[in-house]
């Protein structure tokens, strides 16, 4: 959340001449509902099922950059699917940076309901730490532009022979 996955993914796909898929956008287009609406109607487990179906489909694509929601690594099967045909990059930022980047007034974030956004972001990051550790590459984005993050991913992908 708010690490720049969608924007960086588009920049990287453009640079590489590859297709770009954003799983949250695909789910919204497929269902005709926002992510917040899907959480409200079916709860997080139902959303995670839709997300897993979408990840399963897009992970079959060759020469594709895939931006996922921050909860995707929580399911082992999602990571298995993504790793089968590619390399998983984790974009990180401090909780303070994430909250600053979030446009909470215009984009509802169901997982941030209840506590203060900063406290909830800290909780989510702690809850997800073990799942995120499975990602093969980590890039801290706090002090980087989206283009710099895309460049770092391309550089690392080149070093490990993906390009």
Walkthrough of the structure:
With 163 residues, this protein is mainly alpha-helical. The protein has helices at 5-16, 23-31, 35-58, 76-84, 95-101, 117-132, 146-159, and strands spanning 19-22, 64-67, 89-92, 137-140. Helix content is 56%, strand content 10%. Helix 1 crosses helix 7 (146-159). The radius of gyration is 15 Å and the shape is globular.
How is the secondary structure organized here?
Blueprint lengths: L4 H12 L2 E4 H9 L3 H24 L5 E4 L8 H9 L4 E4 L2 H7 L15 H16 L4 E4 L5 H14 L4
Parallel strand pairs: 1-2, 3-4
Helix pairs in contact: 1-7, 2-3, 5-6
Comma- or semicolon-separated keywords:
two-stranded parallel ribbon, two-stranded parallel sheet, mainly alpha, 56% helix, 163 residues
Query: How many helices does DSSP assign?
Result: 7
Low-confidence stretches: none
Strand order of the largest sheet: 1-2
Order of helices and strands: HEHHEHEHHEH
Helix content: 55-70%
**Cα shape:** globular
Rounded average pLDDT: 94
- Work out the number of β strands: 4
Portion in beta strands:
5-15%
Span from first to last CA? Answer: 27 Å
Q: Gyration radius, to the nearest Å?
A: 15 Å
- Class from secondary-structure proportions: mainly alpha
